[in-house]
Amino acid sequence: MSVAACTNSPMKSLYHSSEEDEEAEESSVTAAAKFVMRHLVNLISNFPSDVNSSRTFTSLQECHDLDISATEMCKDIFDSPNLQMFVFNKSTLLTVMEMQKRDISWPIGSSTIPSSTARILVRDLTGRYSANATMIYENRQAGPTTIKRSFSHTNISENLFDSSECGVINNTINNPLPSSNDQLDKMLRHIAESSPECQLQPGEPLDVPVEMTDDVTSYLEEQVKTTAAQHEQVEINLSSEQKTDFRLTVGRERAPQYSPTTLPYTLCRQLLNQMGYLSWETRHRIHLLKKTEKLLRELKHLDMQSCRETHKFAVIYVANGQEDKHSILSNSTGSSSFEEFVCGLGWEVDLTTHEGFMGGLQKNKSNGATAPYYCTSTLEVMYHVSTRMPSETEEDRHKKLRHIGNDEIHVVWSEHYRTYRRGIIPTDFANVIIIIYPLECGLYRIQIDKKPEVPFFGPLFDGAIVSKKSLPVLIRCTAVNASRIHRLTLPHFKPFFQVRMVCLDRIVKVCRMDTTFETFTAGVYAPSLADQDYLPLAAASLETEQAVEADINDSSKSRGELSIHWSCLSIPHGYYLLCNAHVWAFVYSGILTKST
Fold first, then answer.
1. How many other C-beta atoms lie within 10 A of the C-beta of residue 409?
2. pLDDT value at 4 more than 60
3. How many contiguous H segments (helices) and E segments (strands) does the chain have?
4. Cα–Cα distances in Å, from 165 out to 123, 160, 162, 184, 207?
5. Antiparallel, parallel or unpaired: β 409-414 and 309-318
6. Separation between Cα atoms, residue 361 and residue 365, nearest integer Å
7. Helix, strand, or coil here: 139?
8. Distance CA 269, CA 526 (A)
9. Where would you tag: which of 61, 99, 133, 175 has the fewest CB atoms within 10 A of its CB?
10. Which helix (H) or strand (E) holds 83?
């Protein structure tokens, strides 16, 4: 057989089809495993949250609490110097932003109230989460321990002279000496007593003044006394001047005081560093994101995707004697048994304030004020109950038919004596109809009407008899399984977690910045300048680094130095770029200089 014939054979096309199916199945299994792992970490023992069970993710976005005028996601948030976006492990998006001080109650005993707060927004397969962080130095003692001391220059000098460390007059307390203001006399007496071998004459103290000889006249004696008094007065004046001259006095050391920083993104840099994201070992796991219009669109698209499995079911009430569309859609109330059954399907939610899955219903009360809703940490169900929707006018009934007719699963409560027919509510959908017939004995008979292409599902089956207590739970489980099995028959159906994974992969593939460690660090230290000024550096970083290393290793140069100028690089002086151990870089007025 020729190669062309073999390539075009049906067996070859079948082989390719099976290969693609295997790859799709493997991708789906991988996405499911990742979702389960993240779901257990994020939501176990954390559902329902303290807000409500209809929302498992945060409603906060990058535009909230940031010092910009925008109230929704827009490109202005990318210009903020207090926001930077990362991708971690090619599967998680991180937005690290810094906010100014808000009205937040801090722990008792905190010495200071932080001037800023760091917020981390996390987007992954299970949803969007947020956490705030700040630096708090908490004091666990009962009260502040403040030591207050006052010193004078005289006390300091006396204490320094009388200190035991100087070894001068440490034992004067045990052996008191006559008081004297002359420090030299004190020292001579101490030497004579502590070291007798230093005495000029045995038994004579050293501080005794020498007697005047006879040849010294009274005139000379008066001159000596006058000169000594003058010298003493000069010393006193000089000492008093030195005490008031700040140039000759030693400044008192004081403890540094807290002052809030004015530099942007300081707290976030500390947080990223403490979490280990700025280390060389984790560099291959975290990357910057290109803050462009495309990233903004992709983030909006990702946030619109559901974080849980969603279903919407039509619940129709058929009273006795009703066999046409108009009479069924005109029902505004049902029997007490029907209302009790609806209450068992879920709980009533106010559509105007509901934050979970809406199932196509509007918040303006055009489809009713309330609706039954049910959810778990992985599932959301909204019921389109025919008696909950307005039915006064023809337009109201048309809206009701539009919502009910577009549902794939119909749950019909029929109190009519005849069997419910599929064509009563005209629709191209309603692939599965679960009909409930109340019996006189208090039990309920179940009829399952499904299209031929829908596979088997359970737990209820056609002809089952169910008690009143078990009816709502079994109907809900059967409807959910019927919706799941029907979706699997659709050609391009993907589970919600796989859709989110595709969105995340697209963001990582298109918006991730493959930069060097130096450019990455520069983007963390100056977020608002990363996309504008460091992108030229990122584009030429590899070639530049090779050129610098070649220049440095040149044996003909005693000191290798290479200067490169980018005309578009214009940032204030004082910004530094961290480089390799043998290369440092300093940015000043648009000049990047690398040298040994």
1. 23
2. no
3. 16, 18
4. 65, 9, 9, 19, 24
5. parallel
6. 9
7. coil
8. 10
9. 175
10. strand 83-88
- Ranges 83-92, 258-267, 328-337, 445-454: which has the least confidence: 258-267
Q: What is the pLDDT of residues 308-346, one digit of tens each?
A: 999 999 999 999 999 999 999 999 999 999 999 999 999
Q: pLDDT tens digits, residue range 410-456?
A: 999 999 999 999 989 988 889 999 999 999 999 999 999 999 999 99
User: Is the peptide bond preceding residue 48 cis, with omega within 30 degrees of 0?
Assistant: yes
CA distance 593 to 587: 7
Instruction: Tell whether pTM > 0.85.
Output: no
Are 469 and 344 a contacting pair, CB within 8 Å? no
Q: How would residue 167 be classed by pLDDT, with cut points 50, 70 and 90?
A: very low
Using an 8 Å Cβ cutoff, are 582 and 596 in contact?
yes
Partnered with residue 92 across adjacent β-strands are 88
DSSP 202-268: TT--TTSPPPPPTTS-HHHHHHHHHHHHHHHHHHHHHHHHHHH-TTTSPPPP-PPPP----STTHHH
Instruction: Check if the beta carbon of residue 463 is closer than 8 Å to that of residue 277.
Output: no
Query: Tell me, what amino acid is at 572?
Result: P
pLDDT-derived band at 510 (thresholds 50, 70, 90) equals: very high
Name the H helices within 373-450.
394-405
Instruction: For 169, list phi and psi in degrees, rounded to 5.
Output: -130, 50
Task: Using only the alpha carbons of the chain, give its radius of gyration.
Answer: 43
